[in-house]
Amino acid sequence: MDIRRLQHLVMLADKANYARAAEQLHLSQPALTRSVQAAEEEFAMKLFERGAGEVRPTAAGQFVLERARELVRQSRNLQRDVQLYRDRQMGDTACGFGPFPAQFLLPPLLQQARKAFAGVHVRAIMGNWQQLLQRLKDDEIEFFVAETRELPAGSDCTVRALPTQPGGLYVRSGHPLLQSAQTDFTLAHLHAHGLAAVRLPQTVRDALCAQLQLSHDKHLLAVECDDVNSLIQLTLHTDTVLAAIEPAVRPWLQGGQLQAVRVRQVPAMTSSYGVVWQRGRSLSPMAQWLVQQVCELAAQA
Questions:
Q1: Does the keyword DNA-binding belong to this entry (predicted)?
Q2: N or C: which end of the chain has fewer CB within 10 A?
């Protein structure tokens, strides 16, 4: 059943007159008559009694109209909701963030989203890239932002690369290394105090193990945790050395609570983050906006 034909029936019942109903519908009176006749043929029932000047629904017409009004109302609601969804005024979306992107990109992103589109429900999930990739495949999230250098070649994903971020090694103010007269440290000096980091890409782990002459990467980190705030608090209150990208610890560097330690011959520590979504899948309007904001925030960082 054509929803427009149902709208014609409802309008005719409301106006009780073909001429008035046709004018309201911006139709010619013959066109409205043909539409009503087509509906009666489709339902195989007479829907209206045609009097001298007034049109009234038959009993069958009342039965049809009761249900037609609800369908017309739902159709109008759908049109309204689609417009709101297209304008990012309602709906929902889910996305994922790796540990470091969650630290320095997610807070301003959520603030901007709430200010601009308070009617949209945004669900943000944190995890490492393996966990997020599985959630993406399971359609639990539309996209994720995380380390991408180890994404499998056959993951069937589209990756939008983000600007690289510099990394480093950081200790608390008052750390014994900072009190030492020595200023030229090796990685071994820092490793002796215990290294803390999120799950590192295997290429980075291998490079650090080679520098430290470790037989296995399980001996590399004293603490491995994907909660960056926990790692920062650990670093602030112990002599542990934190490996992190600079934007994630910038507030503590600017406040003087953390300081970078220069290390001789340490492998380059930079990020390789990207926005990842399933190839061939169209992102929702809200997800498209979020991806654009992520790219802008990453560039500003």
A1: yes
A2: N
C-beta neighbour count of 186 within 10 angstroms: 14
Task: Give the span between the Cα atoms of 1 and 84, in whole angstroms.
Answer: 26
d(CA 82, CA 88): 10
Q: Helical H runs in the chain?
A: 3-15, 18-25, 29-43, 59-86, 99-104, 106-116, 129-137, 176-179, 187-191, 202-212, 228-237, 246-254, 285-300
Tens of pLDDT along 145-169?
999 988 988 778 999 999 999 989 9
Cβ atoms within 10 Å of 219's Cβ, excluding its own: 11
Sheet holding 223-224, edge to edge: 223-224, 195-197, 241-245, 167-172, 258-260
Alpha-carbon span 216 to 198, nearest angstrom:
17
Report d(CA 277, CA 3) in Å as an integer: 36
Task: Encode pLDDT of 80-99 as tens digits.
Answer: 666 756 766 657 889 999 99
55-57 and 48-50 strand pairing: antiparallel
Take residue 182 and report the two structure tokens written for it: 């020595």
